[in-house]
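During the reporting period, our protein records have gained a structure token line. One record among many is quoted in full directly below:
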Amino acid sequence: MPKRKTALRRRSGQARRKLAKRKPAKRKAAKRRPVKRTAKRASNKKGTKRRSTLRRRSGQARAVAKPARKASPARKAIVTKAMKKATQKNIGRTTHYYDRIGVAIVELAAPLHVGDAVTFKRGENEHTQAITSMQIDHTPVTSAKKGDVVGIQVTKEIHEGAEVLPA
């Protein structure tokens, strides 16, 4: 049982009420001692020399810069695969999807031809297919250049904002 409660039990009524109103005393925070530093001595053929580096006696480790770690072959393969995905040429971006007719409207950032295989990617969802039908302003075309807005017939639902990448 804490000392404060036992002290209250031993007192009479008036003294007990005074002690109950009084706030407990705050404990003082312990002062931090300054860290002592001493110079290391290194033995040398000619005699002893003092090094300019310092160490701490209190057992705290001094921050030391670590040399760069060499990449393993497996890590290199992962990095190169990620770099290829990052540098993959973006063909365009889906701006709209008509679900009743199964057509995705794509704004092109690179030329595109009928028969090309493309991947629609948004988040974790990916869908790869070959382009079978492409239209610009309701007229069928076989190829489209950068900047054109084309309608592409797709087999799966494509969400707006999906990137169009080469397969």
